[in-house]
Every structure is written in structure tokens, then in C-alpha cells.
Structures
1.
Amino acid sequence: MIGRRVGRSPRPEPSRDAGPRALTSDFWYTLAYVTAPERRRLEAGRVRIWADAMVRAGIDRPRALKEVGRLIAAGRAAEARGSTPPIDAQAAALSRRLGLRRPLRGGEIGEALDRNLLRRTVRVAPGAKRALGRLRRDGILLGIVSNVLFETADGARALLDRLDLRSPFDGLYLSAEHPWAKPRPQPFRMILRELGAAPDRSAHIGDLRWDVDGARRAGLTPWLYTGLYRFESPRPAIPRRAGAPLVRIRRWDEVPAKFGA
């Protein structure tokens, strides 16, 4: 099930003029970000939580740390193929590989990973809330499409609530709850179905090639957000394509004008 709706005031009816009338957005480094030091703390916490769980299961720490590296690499490879295994599935697969008599407790690990995430200082992209408010007042349908690999969907929702970023949106797709992730087109198709929007009247904004490729495959107009590139290294390589050049968005303040808002 796509994200639960929350109570909102009625929105205006979308106008009938040309151009996209729905916007979906990536989360990390599009709507929100962490600084480089905070990102290092977030990633170190993830490694520690997984390694500690393995040590409690009887695995020596050097091997546990090596297994965490393998786990992260396997998760990234799965994500590149368009799926993000939830934490309990990752824990079960790791338990089988290690031959543990008592499997790792995915629920406990997931809760610890979520606490680690929510301890971090996460900032909203400059101008994003103002732009989203303008889009909503103009009747633009809004949704989030986010890959969730290292924490749980509940943790992602809690972070959105803490940042006050759920209320502007009409739909929420978190890949940990579904078989598909970006760059596959299914996440975009499912969120548009939730919004009741047509792909050829919709745009997606995100900072990665997966956002661009997935949106294109689903029939949406891709917009590449570059405003937080300074926190990402290296910058994503986006191949040139025949036809209209890829639109690059440097500031959220530019987005409402794309809709005439």
C-alpha cells in the first residue's frame, strides 16, 4: 500500500492548461540532506548496529565488520537492479549465509537503525517548503518516490513527520514496502495511480540518474535537481539523449514557475 493520506484542507482543482500538473519528488538530496560530517556519523552508526548484532550472535568483530561491507554492497547492487530488500529480509539472508542457529532479529536491528537515523541532524532543502506550498495552492498533485534501503519505512515516515514534510504530499512511495525501487518505472506508475495523474502531465524531480531514468521509462518528465550536489560525491553522470535537453533545477524556487504557479 502506498503511503497513508493525512487530513488536509481541500486543494484547488488543477487547471487545464498545457504542461505537467503533478510532481513527484525524490527525498534524499532533493527534499532533505545531511552535511558530510553528519552523513559519516549516520553511516558509521549503521555499520556499528549490524556488527553488534552479529557479535551478539557469536561472530567475531573483524568478520562481522567484513560481513557488513558485503551486506551494504549487496544492497546497493540490488538497488541498482530496482529493488531494496527490507531490513528483516536483509537480516534473514545474512543469517543464512553465516549459518546462525538463532537468526538475527531484523525487527530489533530495524528499530536501532531508525533511532540512528532520527538522531541525525537532517535539513530541508532551501526553499522546498515554500515551493511546495505554492504548488499545492495552485492545485498541483504532489508525491514522494524514495528508495529506502538502510532503515525501515516506518523510520522514513517518522523522519518526514519530524521535518514536517508529509503534509504537503498526497502520496508516498517507500520502496522498502514494495517489490520495486528506482530506477524501475513501477514506483512512478504506482504513485501516479495513487495521485490520479497521467504520466504525460507529470514531472519528477530528483538528484540521481536513477530518478531521471526511472521517470523517463514511466513516461514522466524528469527534472534533475542540482541544488545539493555539494553534499554528494561524485556527481551523477547523466547521459545525453536525443530530443529535448534535460532540465536542471538549481533551486526549489524555480519549480513553481515550471507549472505556472
2.
Amino acid sequence: MEHPTHPDVLVDGQWLTDHLDDPNVRVIDVHLDPAPYERGHIPGAVHWPALTTLLTPDFRTNFDVGATDTLLGESGITNETTVVACSEHRALGAWVFWFLKTIGHDRVRVLDGGMEKWRSEGRPLTTDVPRLVAVDFRSSEPEHSRRAPLEQVLAAVGDGESVLLDVRTAEEWRGEIFVVAPPQGSERGGHLPGAVHLYYEHTLRDDGTFKSVEELTALYAAHGLQPGKPIITYCAVGMRSAHAWFVLSQLLGWPDVSSFDGSWNQWGRLPDTPIETC
């Protein structure tokens, strides 16, 4: 199997098992609800409920410096801590990676296969919640080139250069679903004009681990994607688009990839953004 261009961004279950007692490693288990964490998690893992930590009430990524520094400090993370991100949800580990890299914390890895793979391998689980001592975390210089703001996406539509990559489900792509429900009121369903559709889970094997570089390169080539052109990924609220960003930029090493973290949650609520439906 061909290894990723940047193997330091991924760890497997054996590596993490060997580092469970390492004080410089902190496992972050992120979920949309607490049930998966409560029924069993990696020993020492800290739970981040996504809806109240990394997202604001309007489902936008929370980049408030004060909130971010408090969250990481209360999680026992210093600027020297290596964070290993995992989840039962196949996209959320990579989303945490993208988030931490964007706020300037470089010491972050993704557990390949997430909790799905960890459980299948019979690795240790606990229901004990770790007792943490708050530490000081100071955000570094943010790296916002990983983000595609609304203005950049608007300019990219129809520019003949940029590739817009929609990684949502087929139902979302066709406009049948808006985020988690059919469109209501002023909300609009559909996709960005000219976007390429490729569901994010197609980059994964059946066990949730990432496919090889050869497999990924062939997958994207089959959908007309090649390195060299600017690529903007998007989904509903930025989680799955961050996963696609991770695959393209970190595993394949493609140079000009950004995630539209506003995604359809922002685009579909505006009255005059162009859309297509199927």
C-alpha cells in the first residue's frame, strides 16, 4: 500500500495504544451527541460535544479566540500537546484537525478509522471521565488560507479555474434536503453551479480507514479532479468539507485546497446566491 504524502497527520490504533499514558498526548473525542462517548471511549479521551464547543448556535464554526483558548485549556491541552482527534462519525476527526490547524495549533493527528476501527480491533474502552487540570493555552497565529470565505466562493463560481467540490449526500445535492430537513421558508436546496459531486465517504474503506494514495488519486481523477487548480470543498455546515480538505491537502499533498466552512448552511440561506438543482 502506498503511504500518504504526510504520514505524520495520521496515527493508527497501535500507535495510540502505545501513547495512552503519554502526558504530552491528548485524545479528543468529538460527537454531535454524548451517547457514543458515554457508552465507551478511549481511556483519557476528552469529550467535545460539537454543537456546543466548535459550532455557534447558527451552526457556524466558532473561531472566537477566547472561546477556543478556554476550550483547549480546560481540555488539558497546552501549545506543546499533541492532539489525536477521533469520533464515531467518519468526518469529525478530520474536522477537528482542520479546525486546530486553522487556529494555529500544529500538533494534531487523526486516528485512522476513528472509534469504528478502534472498537473493531478490541482496543481498550472506558466509561470513566478523565479528571483534568485546566492549563494555559494561547492561540497562535491563525492560518485562514485553509478557509474559503463567502466572497471567495462567489468569485469562484463560473470563473473557469476553480473546482467546487460538493461532498454531501445525493439527496442534499439534488436539493431534497437542506442540512438535516427539507428546505423551509427562505431556505433553498440544491448545489453550487458547476460543482462536482463526490460523497466524502467514497474516500474511505469499509472499516472507515482512508484509502491509499493510489486509490484516492484514481477516485478524484475519475471525477475530473487533478492537482494544480484551486479546489474549494463544501457540504452542509463544514464538517464533511473539512474531511475532503484533509484528504486532498494532507494525504495527497495537493497545494491549493480550502474548505468553505459556511457551506450550504450559509449559501442556501442567502436570497441571491446562485444555485442549481437536479
3.
Amino acid sequence: MATDIDQWLQNNTVDLQGRVVVMTGATGGIGRHVVRDLLRLKAKIIMLDRDMASLNDFSQQLHNEFPAAEIETITMDLNQIKSVNATVEQLINRRIDFLILNAGVYNIPVVKSQLGYNNIFQINFISQYYLMKQLLPALQRTEGKVVAVSSLAYNYGKLDEDDVDYSKRAKKASKIYGNSKRFLTLALSEFFKDRDDVHLTLVHPGITLTPLTNAKNSKLTALTMKILFPKPEVAALNIVRGVFAEVACDEWIGPKVAKVWGAPTVAKLPMATAEERAKISNLAENICKVIEKSAMF
């Protein structure tokens, strides 16, 4: 497997020496493989994660595997806007070539955040969109790129103005998660569609067994997924491809065959009306304005 991945990297990427990648969810299942791939390409990695112990443990592993690697860690809790703002303060004057929005939570207890939305919506959508907006000046200096990790569960969501974060669907984890990914995907697509100073690539990893997906499955289902679907290190290549590929804002990169198997390829985003896209974009911008004006954050 390692040989195949090394060959793929050789054929589809270039050296990233001197380039800086900031990544949310860097210690997660797929995130770990993305980080390793980018270190193989000699990028400097700034890993963002809420768990300091996980960051430290993973960072030590990486230093053992890649002794010459440039790795930095920052503790950031996406459920706390103050934590996001503290991270922005550390990064805003730094070089950033790529911002990878990889973090995602799925089957966790649903509670309300300070903004009044459920924590899954907050972590998967609001805070990562806000982080992008705040770090935009740093990305503009390098004519950088945002790589946003969406999901096939995007199709489980649809704008409901009476329940935008799907809090009334508290027992339907897949819908709550998918809706949050839909909002992030469409809000970013709208934000970047007319920009040429910073670029966007949307990606999805298909279906793979990670701690995120394993949390909701029985042992039998998990074993079936492990046998039938690509391994996380293969799914991660869709995200790595996003670092290098130039695609339109109404497209995403994912597995070629049935959006599950095969090499990363470009496809059109699933259908969303212009009205839904505009309303989601307006909501994202309005939430950012509330955060920026509020002294509580």
C-alpha cells in the first residue's frame, strides 16, 4: 500500500518545500494520513486540534518518522469562538499557503453552542467558515488556497429556514452531520466563486472506515466497511489532490467510481438551487458579523 501511495504522490504532486499548510482536524483518522503525505512532500505543517495530548503524541510520532520535518501544533477548540480567535491571532501575520478545513464531528451528544446553534453545526460549519474569513488576509498575501473537506452526506441536508442547524432532528446524526457539511460546502462555494486572489478546492473522501464513521456502526458493519471500501490512507489522497488541482467552485474532487472507489477525479457538486446557495451564504456572512461585533468572543 505504501508503495502505491508513494507512486501516486510522485505522479500527481510536486515538492512543497517552503510552503506552509494550516490544517484543522489534523489528528483525526483521515487527517493523519493527509499530514503524512504532505510531510513526504516537504511542506511545513501547522496542525490545529482541540486535544493537546493528541497533538503532542502525533507530533512526536511524526518527528520520529520525518526527523527533518517542520511541524507546529496549536490547540484550538472549534466549539469555542474565543479559541478560534486566539488561533487567528497566532497565525494572521504568518505565511499560509494552504488552509485545509478537515475537522468534522459526527455522532456526538448534541448541545447548543454560545451562538445558539448545535455544536455539530458550530464545529463543522460556523467556526471553520469564520476561521477562513479571519485568515483570508494571510492567504491573500501568498495567493493561497482553501481546501475544504465535504462529504457524501452533503446530500442528506437541505436548507430548512425553520431549523437551519437541524436541531429538531436530534436523533438523526447522519442528517445533522450532512446538513452542516452542506452549509460549509455551499457557503464556501458562493464566497469564492468570483474571487481570484485566493482559490478554493472542495473535496470529499468517499466512504472509508475512520473513528468518525466507526462510532455509529456495529462491529459487523465496521468489518464490512473495512473490507468493501478504500482504506483511510487511500481516501486521504482525495484531499491531497485538492492541494494541487484547480477546479471550479461548483465542482468537487472525490473517488472516480460511484464516488466511492478509484482515483481522485473532478465532478459537479450535487444540485443546489441558486436560492438555497444565496441564503446559506447570507447566513454564514451574518453569523460572522455577529461574532465580529460581539464582545463575548
